[in-house]
């Protein structure tokens, strides 16, 4: 007997996208926001998993001590869009260098840049499961 696999909504969306199908938005369930005390590292892991499950390539500098100050935590691309986001806890503050990077990247009009927080997980999920560019989270 085969073990049963219960699909999550993200599984269904990814499957539909791989096969060129469209899901009725009225039938989808909004994913919950993450707990208020979610650490930045946990948010990063969840976002990267969601992104890769939906066909995005991701990049994160694991040791930023030798990198430029303020460069965003996460870069994602699906071949049609480039997303560059700083990940923060719900109460985390941007450094001046982070603010400058995000502001300049967003100003190019070619990169979607901003801040993602645990409370934004439903919007993050919505962004990473669709293919058009639209800003739904904090921007600088």
What does this molecule look like?
The protein is α+β, with helices and mostly antiparallel strands and 140 residues long. The protein has one domain (9-128): Trna Endonuclease, Chain: A, domain 1 (3-Layer(aba) Sandwich), CATH 3.40.1350.10. It has four helices and four strands; from the N terminus they run H-H-E-E-E-H-E-H. The chain has helices spanning 9-18, 40-53, 96-107, 121-128, and strands spanning 57-59, 74-77, 82-87, 112-116. Strands 1-2-3-4 form a four-stranded mixed sheet, with helices on both faces. A hairpin with a 4-residue loop joins strand 2 (74-77) and strand 3. The longest helix has 14 residues, at 40-53. The protein is globular and about 45 Å long. The mean pLDDT is 84.
The gyration radius over C-alpha positions equals: 16 Å
Number of strands: 4
Low-confidence stretches: none
Shape: globular
- Strand proportion, as a percent range, falls in 5-15%
Q: Biggest sheet: strands, sense, closure?
A: 4 strands, mixed
Mean pLDDT: 84
Backbone structural class = alpha+beta
| Strand/helix succession | HHEEEHEH
Number of helices: 4
